[in-house]
Specification:
Number of helices of chain B: 15
Low-confidence stretches of chain A: 1-7, 128-140, 233-240, 249-258, 495-499, 570-575
Radius of gyration of chain B: 37 Å
GO biological process, one term (chain B): attachment of GPI anchor to protein
InterPro entries (chain B): PIG-T (IPR007245)
Distance between the termini of chain A: 31 Å
Largest interface: A-B, 57 and 70 residues
Mean pLDDT of chain B: 76
Strand content of chain B: 25-35%
Structural class of chain A: alpha/beta
Mean pLDDT of chain A: 79
Oligomer: heterodimer
Shape of chain B: elongated
Low-confidence stretches of chain B: 166-176, 225-235, 544-554
Helix content of chain B: 25-40%
Protein name (chain B): GPI transamidase component PIG-T
Helix content of chain A: 55-70%
Strand content of chain A: 5-15%
CATH superfamily of one domain in chain B: Mu homology domain, subdomain B
CATH class of one domain in chain B: Mainly Beta
Number of strands of chain A: 11
Shape of chain A: globular
Keywords (chain B): Membrane, Transmembrane, Transmembrane helix
Organism (chain B): Morus notabilis
Number of strands of chain B: 24
Chain lengths: 709, 581
């Protein structure tokens, strides 16, 4: 005992700071968590105005050359397209022929691209692997193919190393007015670009056949562009499918001498891609422009691309630019109150020092939060919001521009005006990208948009996440230290010999780690199970979900029976008093590591997951202790724990979120399965996160909650 | 030696790839330079370096970048059938401009003041689709024993121009007239007489084989009644089009082997024109004709496969243009083979794995030994020499399409090896595809006229058909050059941490220090608390007192004190900020 009494040598300040934080972990974690949530809510205020960072882009520096002449031609094209609808036979093939004919008249190189949309399949090892051509299904029926039409305008004086891609998805079976308009817009730009002399990059116009989904067509074309299969059996398809034969038969009779090439045309490395869509939403005030940018796993295109579009649309063509937002958040009371609070704080601050810009109007604030939430949600989901997502897989910056005209587009003057403005916008964007000597690299890749003209960069939004996650290791360390201290003091009181005590102490830590490891192993097993469930034929989503659920529970018990036996000894030993604390600390460390890893892969998932997991982890306490004590605070803590554990269960979270946004009426048990299916179909890392981090953490928290002590 | 500056791409599909003009004059974008040296082997590289520097100064271009051994190669047989003294280098990114044209014009006897070169109006030349200036030097005493040792300089300017065209709304039913042109409408200038120093000054107008055939067909259609007159007389006067100047001579191609109509060559001599009567050739179409130029046997294109910054593949695809079927003997078409020579230089940071060569013919993979006739590879050496591949492939004549692929890894460059615009990507120079069995010679008419017309002699040379593929752009991993500040900061931090801890480890003797601390602790708190208390004593003016806080709580105690002080300092800073601004 004499040695312990002796004054300990003083530690270095950093160690002392650590000890201080650990000893005050409770207040520290409360402060940090609140600060984290507050920082997240402050993001719209901290957002900066976007600016064009690459000087070479020079958006809007040239006068648009797109004239009424082009628009008239585009109008004729639109009319011809729509007239095809009334024709009885083979509208799909006819429309592709018509488009190809028009492209050829512009002097472009045209080719058709036949594709079969890939059937989505769960490949457990394909996450994060580069998109590969995969195995082509052998038994594809003829009805299940699409034909993209590709036109390429070579830059007259360029060296053909780079290309800009325009994509217009349309349904070849039934061409709607809006789709025809989007084709018309692209046609007007394309016809202009086939004449201009300033092009430095080739222009590819991909008219993608969206009858099997917009994304599938574009991604099939990109796959063949980048990873072609040279041993594909063209001939088999051509023999069996009369439609395609027809396509190529007619080709030879065409009047303008040059034939349509039946191979695959290429044009250099892609610099950027624009997906143009027109939707008929009948806006009341203005022509609208919606920008969709999120690609798979929350990847975003370079901010400069969005900046150019935003700048040109707002300052040159007079569109109302929008980014997707969660509409339900716009009306919420508490956000308005919060916004007003921040506004008044901002006023106070600016009265102190007018140079300090803080605070924005409350309406802007709610809009910002709604946009931010949608941005976070879309990134976290990891599912691309449009065909532009396919480009991101090949490191090409792409966005979808969704134009929606003001009134109905039937009136011919309105339509001309709309085509002119849309065309000029796209022309301006292409001109800017064409100016770019290097690829997009100057501006941000990691950002969240709070409005089309405002963004939060990674340096700012990381703070919220760091604050949120920081308590986890602290509390884990303090719990561990407490448990060890308690044990050692117990040991000391009981005057047990030192040797077995330390051995058991370390053993206990290993036991807890083993348990956590087993649960994580189970999590990965659960995330692999859908692969086997998919093999079952004729299943409805509900059935699959129930099978999945039952199998997971079953596998959990099997694992428990096989692997639980070694640590049942530990339970029997005398040292189980604070066992839950050690388990909790190990759980927290594992969660912390998982969240930090996930924040590197997909920040938004980690942020949203952190919001759910961190409070749950921090508060988890054995239920029996709380009941035993029975005071108000412990009971409230118990209720809080139960609520959080209920919310934290992924299906429940999903149902709650869906209910909040779409109403609880339409909810079905199978929906969760459909959602999960879409996640792995897009090979979203969120799926892995749910399986490997979120679910095990939730199970461990439940375990701690029902721990017997 | 041959040096060419080119802007734009030669469109092999539209402008042909078989005639002497494209196969001699179509060049890859940028600068291409090759030279054969008549010096001992060990001096070749040195004289190449001299040459590049000399040319670079002469033509105001960055040809001197070809000096470094990473940018040129020494093909054995793939490029020209010359000996081992050949050096070949390209700069695909070189921008060609008037400053390169002016020195080229200076080499002409009358510059651009008189003669045909007066046509060289800079804006109209650079407005065209394609523009290539070429300088060809041949040492006469090179192979003969130097009796008349002189140097022959050939200067060629190849321009593809678009006639000014009025925009007409095109309907799908209406067919377009091909645009009519004249020298004034294209160049904006007229030729008034020849250069005084020139021996001959002639303008040629060639009608393609296909065009002639097409015109003949049309003529037959329209003039069935006067069928007897259908011969070349009709064409000589120009059926379907009208020339504004009467040609001095019309030459007709002599060829027995090709089954089509011969191409025609109209010869106009500029010499007889003068200032008062400038030469202005024009061509006006009377009927719409569509024709295509003669293609090379295969249409070669090259592209990159794969994505990402790690690896990729180069693919060269060949599409048959069906020329070979009628050019070669049609009876032996099943057994005949079409040799294709590929010469490709790849910079060292594209690490090509030559063993991954795969050849697909008609979408079937072929064994390499079946297809590759001859191959010579010199692998790249990091930062020393580029990789080079010379290969002869033998394809069956019936083949429709073929693809050859090579995989590569992308290398890393040292920070100072990146060019200024590194984020654009890195170029792989064009591959040279030649067809050894095909010769792009055109024999024109009677022999005695040939002496007077040097260009015909040029046309008659038996050169094999050559085409160049596209330049490829490979995106490599590039560091973020725009943030040197960050790099400096992080490096400094790491260095500071490293050296600090290293010094700490080296300087400190832990045992002794602990003993020292223990003895000190008995008296005072510790070095930091002592310092703090001294500081506080100085600040408050109170006499120094030794803190007697117990060590167990000292950590939290001092920290709270520290926090208090930090808050105090922050407060002072805020106040300062307020009242001094």
């Amino acid at each position: 005992m004499a040695e312990t009494e002796a004054p300990r040598p003083r530690q270095r300040p950093i160690v002392r700071l650590g000890i201080f934080l650990i000893s005050h972990s409770f207040s520290f974690s409360v402060v940090c968590c609140t600060a984290g949530v507050l920082a997240l809510l402050l993001l719209p205020i901290l957002a900066k105005n976007t600016y064009i960072s690459e000087n070479a882009l020079m958006p809007g520096s040239a006068n648009p050359m797109l004239s009424n002449q082009d628009v008239l031609e585009a109008n004729r094209f639109v009319k011809d397209l729509i007239a095809l609808n009334s024709k009885p036979r083979g509208s799909g093939i006819e429309s592709q022929r018509l488009i190809a004919q028009y492209m050829k008249d512009l002097g472009a190189e045209v080719n058709y691209h036949k594709f079969h949309p890939q059937i989505t399949q769960f490949h457990p090892l394909q996450f994060f692997s580069s998109p590969d051509s995969g195995t082509v299904e052998r038994n594809i029926s003829c009805s299940f193919h699409g034909v993209n039409t590709v036109g390429i305008t070579r830059a007259p004086r360029g060296d053909g190393k780079e290309a800009i891609v325009l994509v217009t998805p349309y349904n070849s079976q039934k061409i709607k007015q809006a789709e025809a308009l989007s084709l018309g817009t692209a046609y007007s730009v394309f016809s202009l670009l086939s004449r201009v002399t300033w092009l430095a990059k080739d222009i590819i116009w991909l008219v993608s056949d969206s009858q099997h989904g917009e994304y599938a067509a574009v991604s099939a074309w990109l796959r063949d562009y980048h990873i072609p299969m040279f041993t594909r059996l063209h001939t088999v398809n051509a023999e069996t499918c009369p439609d395609i034969n027809y396509l190529y038969d007619v080709r030879d009779n065409s009047v303008t001498g040059r034939k349509i090439y039946d191979g695959f045309k290429r044009a250099g490395t892609m610099a950027a891609a624009l997906v143009i869509k027109v939707v008929d939403r009948s806006e009341t005030f203005d022509d609208n422009l919606n920008i969709y940018a999120e690609a798979s796993n929350g990847q975003m295109p370079n901010l400069d691309l969005i900046n150019i579009v935003n700048y040109l649309a707002v300052h040159r063509q007079g569109f109302r630019v929008k980014v997707e937002k969660l509409w339900s958040l716009l009306d919420s009371k508490w956000l308005k109150n919060l916004g007003e609070l921040f506004e008044s704080v901002g006023q106070v601050v600016s009265s102190i020092n007018p140079q300090w810009k803080f605070g924005i109007p409350a309406a802007d604030y709610t809009e910002g939060i709604a946009t931010l939430a949608s941005s976070l949600y879309n990134q976290a989901l990891g599912v691309p919001t449009g065909p532009h997502g396919a480009f991101r897989d090949y490191q090409v910056d792409a966005i979808t521009l969704e134009l929606s005209p003001r009134a109905s587009v039937d009136k011919i003057i309105r339509q001309n005006d709309f085509l002119l403005r849309g065309g000029r916008l796209i022309e301006g964007v292409i001109l800017s990208v064409n100016n770019l000597l290097e690829k997009f690299h100057q501006s941000f890749f990691l950002y969240l948009l709070t409005s089309p003209g405002k963004f939060v960069s990674v340096g700012v939004y990381m703070i919220a996440f760091a604050l949120l996650v920081a308590p986890l290791p602290m509390v884990a360390a303090s719990l561990y230290a407490d448990a060890i201290n308690l044990n050692s003091s117990q040991n000391n009181e009981k005057t047990v010999a030192d040797e077995p005590g330390t051995a058991l102490r370390s053993l206990k830590w290993v036991n807890a780690a083993k348990k956590v490891f087993v649960v994580h192993l189970w999590g990965s097993v659960v995330s692999l199970l859908p692969y086997f469930i998919c093999q079952i034929p004729n299943r409805s989503p509900t059935v699959s979900f129930i099978i999945w659920f039952l199998l997971s529970v079953l596998s959990f018990f099997i694992m428990f029976l096989i692997l639980a036996s070694p640590f049942s000894h530990a339970k029997e030993s005398q040292l189980h008093l604070r066992e839950w604390a050690i388990l909790k600390s190990v759980t927290m460390s594992a969660t912390f590591i998982g969240l930090c890893l996930m924040s590197v892969i997909n920040f938004s998932t980690a942020e949203l997951g952190g919001l759910l997991l961190v409070p749950m982890c921090l508060m988890a306490q054995p239920m029996r202790r709380d009941i035993r004590v029975g005071s108000l605070s412990t009971l409230s803590r118990l209720a809080y724990n139960l609520v959080f554990c209920l919310i934290g269960f992924p299906p429940v979270t999903f149902v709650l979120l869906k209910g909040a946004f779409e109403g609880f009426n339409s909810i079905n048990v199978g929906d969760f399965w459909c959602w999960v299916e879409s996640l792995w179909a897009w090979s979203s890392a969120t799926y892995l996160y749910i399986g490997m981090v979120h679910l095990p953490c939730w199970v461990l928290c439940i375990h701690i909650l029902f721990h017997h002590c | 030696m041959e040096l060419s500056f080119t802007q734009g791409r030669w469109n092999y599909e539209r402008w042909g790839g078989f005639d002497p003009v494209p196969s001699n004059n179509a060049k890859p974008p940028g600068v291409e330079l090759w030279a054969v040296f008549d010096v001992p082997h060990y001096q070749v590289d040195a004289s190449w370096k001299n040459l590049t520097h000399a040319l670079s100064g002469l033509f105001c271009a960055s040809i001197n970048f070809l000096e470094s051994s990473t940018s040129y190669s020494a093909p054995q047989w793939g490029f020209h059938s010359a000996s081992g003294n050949l050096r070949y280098g390209t700069l695909p990114r070189e921008a060609v401009c008037t400053e390169n044209l002016t020195p080229w014009l200076k080499l002409l006897p009358c510059r651009d003041k008189a003669g045909i070169s007066a046509l060289m109006d800079r804006p109209s030349i650079y407005k065209g689709f394609y523009h290539s200036q070429r300088l060809h030097l041949t040492g006469k005493g090179f192979d003969s024993d130097g009796v008349d040792s002189g140097i022959v300089l050939q200067q060629t300017l190849t321009v593809v121009l678009q006639p000014n065209e009025k925009r007409t709304p095109v309907t799908s039913l209406e067919t377009k007239f091909q645009p009519s042109w004249s020298l004034t409408s294209i160049f904006g200038r007229k030729v008034s007489g020849s250069c005084v120093l020139a021996k001959s000054s002639t303008v040629y107008l060639q009608l393609d084989r296909d065009l002639v055939a097409e015109l003949k067909n049309l003529q037959k259609h329209n003039e069935i009644a006067v069928a007897e007159n259908v011969n070349y007389e009709g064409l000589r006067s120009g059926y379907g089009f009208q020339l504004s100047v009467e040609p001095d001579k019309v030459l007709e191609e002599v060829n027995g082997s090709h089954g089509t109509s011969p191409s025609l060559l109209y010869v106009f001599s500029v010499e007889k024109h003068s200032e008062s009567e400038p030469f202005d050739l024009g061509l006006t179409w009377k009927i719409p004709v569509a024709w295509s130029c003669q293609q090379a046997p295969l249409h070669a294109s090259r592209f990159l496969m794969g994505s990402g910054n790690e690896r990729g593949a180069i693919a060269i695809s060949f599409e048959s243009t069906r020329l070979s079927e009628w050019l070669l003997h049609s009876d032996a078409i099943d057994s005949c083979e079409l040799p294709v020579k590929i010469f490709q230089v790849v910079p060292w940071y594209i690490k090509v794995y030559y063993h991954t060569l795969q050849v697909y013919v008609d979408e079937q993979q072929q064994a390499i030994s079946d297809v590759v006739d001859k191959i010579h590879v010199s692998p790249s050496e990091d930062k020393v020499s580029p990789g080079m591949m010379e290969m002869i492939l033998k394809f069956p004549c019936r083949m429709k399409s073929a693809v050859a692929t090579l995989e590569f890894d992308k290398g890393f460059l040292h920070i100072d090896e990146y060019p200024p615009d590194a984020n654009q990507g890195f170029d792989i120079p064009s591959a040279v595809i030649s067809y050894p069995d095909f010769y792009s010679s055109t024999q024109f008419g009677d022999d005695k006229s040939l002496e007077a017309l040097p260009i015909l002699a040029k046309f008659q040379e038996n050169n094999s058909v050559v085409s160049y593929t596209e330049v490829l752009l490979v995106p490599l991993t590039t560091p973020d050059f725009s943030m040197p500040y960050n790099v400096i900061t992080i490096t400094c931090t790491i260095f500071a941490l490293y050296f600090g801890s290293l010094l700490n480890v080296l300087r400190r003797r832990v045992g002794e220090e602990e003993r020292f601390l223990k003895s000190k602790d008995a008296k005072k708190g510790g070095p930091i608390s002592q310092f703090l208390s001294k500081l506080s004593a100085k600040l408050t003016g109170r006499p120094l007192e030794t803190p007697q806080s117990p060590t167990s709580t000292s950590s939290s105690f001092i920290s709270s004190k520290l926090i208090l002080k930090v808050v105090l300092v922050a407060g002072i800073a805020i106040v300062w900020h307020f009242y001094l601004e």
